[in-house]
Amino acid sequence: MVEYAPEWRRSLDDPTSFWLDAASAVDWTVVPQRAVDHHGDEWTWFPDAALNMTVNCLDRHIDAGRGEYVALRYHSAMTGTRKDYTYRQLRDRVAEFAGALEDLGVSRGDRVLLYLPMTPEAVIAMLACARLGAIHSVVFGGFAATELAVRIVDARPSVVVTASGGLEPGRVVEYLPIVRRALEAAPGIVRTVVVRDRAAVPGSAASMTGSVDGVRWCDWDEAVAAATPAPAVPVVSSDPLYVLYTSGTTGSPKGIVRDTGGYAVALAWAMRNIYDVGPGDTIFTASDVGWVVGHSFIVYGPLLAGATTVLFEGKPVGTPDAGEFWRIVDEYRVKTMFTAPTALRAIRRVDPDLEELPDGALRTLRTLFLAGERLDPETSRWANDGLGVPIVDHWWQTETGWPICANPVGLEVLPAKVGSTAVAMPGYDVRILDSRGRDVTGTGPGGSTPEGNIALRVPLPPGTLKGVWGSPGRFRDAYLSAFPGFYATEDAGHIDEDGYVFVMGRTDDVINVAGHRLSTGSLEEVLTIHHSVAECAVIGVHDELKGQRAAGFVTLKAHEHVDHDQLQAELVALVREHIGPVAAFRDVTILDRLPKTRSGKILRKTMRQIVDGEPYKIPATIEDPTVLDALVSAVRSGAGTPQKVR
Ligand code: COA
Ligand code: AMP
Questions:
Q1: Quick one: which of 116, 238, 460, 579 has the most CB atoms within 10 Å?
Q2: CA of 547 to the centre of ligand 1 (A)
Q3: CATH fold match for the domains 5-314+394-493 and 514-636
Q4: pLDDT tens string 543-567
Q5: CA separation (Å) from 327 to 331, 371, 501?
Q6: What are the pLDDT digits (tens) for 168-221?
Q7: How far, in Å, CA of 413 to CA of 411, rounded?
């Protein structure tokens, strides 16, 4: 077995040889001769190469005689539907839909926005864009019309692909009214909306005809029936494959741009060496195609590897029960599974003794990977003890596209350490910088590193972000300017004497609710829309199930006499309307004043410590300490702090 540490060293000392070797796992139409062009803050992987992503995900497996292998297993706990697609069937569906998109005028470099539930059409539409060299931008179904409109304005897609709707437990989410509102808010950009009619959800293209000026609504099946299958278009390796929006410090989300060739190489490496997945293996990633995890490890990674991927529509609990994940593993002989710690906490809450885990159901499962948020030691122990399967906590971001730190079990199984996301992956030079930007890596006892800002020396490895859509300046400002020569992850943590990285939390105002990344800044922007609100602060507080939840604190404009219960309900509704149900925003507290420093900065950290019941110090710079007393007594009295409003 290859030892991992020398491989990682080689990736940093001789990136050209390391990544050109890794590139041999990909089929190129122009094979790369150069690994990277790097000048200062700019780098391009495989600058002289060309390829097509769907050829790598589909056609080449068929050409290698594996066309009858199952590529995709759709399993809907919401409708009871089960459907398998072989590689050949999936390629044919993708080529047909690519033909339909081509007929709608989509070509290389055009953007197509996808707003789809977890059905095979989501995978087909993503791959169909990739077949044409078009750039997809998937928007998670839990986002509201305003968020959809923001993304339409930024990405300027000519086509939107959607469905009549999604299914949430006890609730049908009709997408078409949401899409219509978004198009009204972002006029003159989208020419065509393709609608996949789902029997389970009312709404169709025909019912929308004429609803928004200049927009044509067409039915998916009809568009496909009229089309001829499209051949794959080779693209330059650095051409964007997709733009995926994620929350940043400001209210406007950042469109993370992913290249094609670097991503293919990185995912091919990760599938084999991190996830230990290859042809004939099945991977079950319980996430959503609206998140980066879905892009990389439901769709592109597994298909690049020639493996079988499970597409699951449902929840870890309640659809129908806490045994659904385990039955999927059993039924589909899953080798590798990936989910978020929140999902395990949800299962643990309703089934602490794992009574819903059938005997022997996990016999094929080799590893359970977790990411998206910090894995708390209690959940980690519960899962380790109860499931009897090695757990790998690994760390990455929408921006990086694949793990920064992990346990590369396909190469060498490293000992696990509770609380750590294990070691840096190839090409990631993980450093800890102190608050003044000094590199303190290895300066602690035994070569360990004290807590600080986790930064990555540039260039970042293949597969990581190519930039922020439409704004090279924003890429530099957001990620590269804080610490020259480094990418700032905005996570804090430390490294132990064995090189194990411990990721402790964000250093910006991004919070993580049920593994979903939200910006408190954008929540604050919404709260201030309300005419009664003078000031507000939103902080991430501890939540037993979701890791964190957003808690809002507002002060009222002078002379406003409002019913507090009603105001709280209105603010909750406002967030749902503007950001969407995904924000899961329910806690609002009305205060007379917000705690601030003399220079006017809101003391968010102290507020969080108070709400979480942690010890706190009254900052020397506080403007008026009695404001904290009022917050403490509001929390203690339960005078609604945090007020639960549904
Ligand atoms: N479309 C529309 N609405 C959606 C949605 C979607 N795709 N996904 C979630 N929502 C809605 C939910 O219906 C819920 O609405 P409600 O306020 O009307 O109840 C709201 O958004 C919050 O959803 P969620 O965060 O999923 O909370 P929940 O209480 O419904 O479920 C869990 C709790 C733990 C079961 C759920 O959060 C979960 O499955 N977590 C795992 C997360 C995960 O896999 N993350 C991937 C990152 S790697
Ligand atoms: P996202 O871009 O939505 O994937 O969120 C990325 C952020 O989630 C990271 O910057 C971390 O703050 C957090 N995160 C992801 N995985 C982990 C992990 N394994 N441990 C701790 N935090 C994590």
A1: 116
A2: 13
A3: no
A4: 999 999 999 999 999 877 889 999 9
A5: 6, 22, 33
A6: 999 999 999 999 999 999 999 999 999 999 999 999 999 999 999 999 999 999
A7: 7
Pairwise CA distance, residues 645 & 365, whole Å = 41
393 lines ligand 2 (CB under 6 A): yes
Is any ligand 1 atom within 6 A of the Cβ of residue 547? no
CB 248 within 8 A of CB 519: yes
Nearest-angstrom CA–CA distance, 291 and 295: 7
**Domain 5-314+394-493 coded CATH 3.30.70.1450:** no
Per residue in 122-160, pLDDT (tens digit) is 999 999 999 999 999 999 999 999 999 999 999 999 999
CA–centroid distance, residue 100 to ligand 2 (Å): 37
Cα separation, 536 vs 521, in Å, equals: 10
Atom of ligand 1 nearest to the CA of 168: 13
Instruction: Indicate the burial class of 614 (C-beta count within 10 angstroms; 0-12, 13-18, 19 or more).
Output: exposed
Q: Which of 395, 430, 582 to mutate to test the pocket of ligand 2 (most atoms within 8 A of CB)?
A: 395
Domain spans in the chain, listed from the N-terminal domain onward: 5-314+394-493, 514-636
Q: pTM of the entire structure? A: 0.94
Homologous superfamily, domain 514-636? ANL, C-terminal domain (3.30.300.30)
The contacts of residue 326 (CB under 8 Å, 6+ apart) are 356, 357, 358, 361, 362
Asked if 370 contacts 341 with a C-beta cutoff of 8 angstroms, the reply is: yes
